[in-house]
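Q: What would this chain look like folded?
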Amino acid sequence: MTPAAFEVFAILLKTRSGLVIGPDKLYLLETRLAPLLREQKIADLEALALKLKGIGHAALADAVVEAMTTNETFFFRDDKPFAHFRSQVLPQLAAQRPPGAGLRFWSAAASTGQEAYSLAMIAAESKALLGDRRVEIIGTDIAREPLARARAGLYTQFEIQRGVPMPLLVKYFKKEQDGWRIADSLRATANFREWNLLADLRPLGQFDIIFCRNVLIYFDQPTKSRVLEAIAERLAPDGVLYLGGAETILGLTDRLVSVPGGVNVYMRAKAATSTSASGAPALGAIASAMKAINRSVAAPTDSVPVSSLRSGAVGGS
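A: My prediction, written as structure tokens:
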């Protein structure tokens, strides 16, 4: 493939999804786009690039982006965030909110829905704690096919075995001919929407909990900053953000700070000035220290002002 053809794919993916690829990722283009080439009866990647440069191929461009984005996910993936959410954050939110006040959770880059439904199961198991509070879970992704599967709530035996404990399987899934269907009561709490992480997030509203894990790793530094700034806007003043194990906010934003005792768990910087209910020291010092650390990390040489960026987002939590 010529450098000019490769550039067509690189620009398309960066603009539409935020995904950054270099020439060393040519094998990914060849592997992931091969089924699309067969389906569309296109000879090769060179011919596909030529089509993408033409007018009236928006659907084809969307198909390329969807084929290239990562949709790897499974139930209760990397259990520590879910354990922290279950044992610490959920009880704290229940104590802070007025009786009957609802809770909103967001699974960003939700893929086929396992993360969102993992949160739904934890909420259902915490009924005694939450009482009659309404729990709303929003799952978003740019890939349409995985979202359709998430809405259907039907999973294969392999997908179930990758993380669903037997007691929860018995309680919240029903065996069908094609797999295991999650309970209607949990599907009713989850709303899956096609949404680009780098589009305007304001229509989604505000959230008490945001899981945005294993997404930032696919972005360059300026795009990471833009995503984190936008997410901070959507987080409730006392809300909590969970990132993936290989992700950090350092050098990217000063609007978020680490939650004491959590790993890759963050809150809004302003919220960290309050004193914890357990009598722990005020978190203002922590917020100030985190801001100082953020400022001390040298900005990447390829960084540009966030306001000048125009790009998209990628899935896979």
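The longest helix spans residues 80-96.
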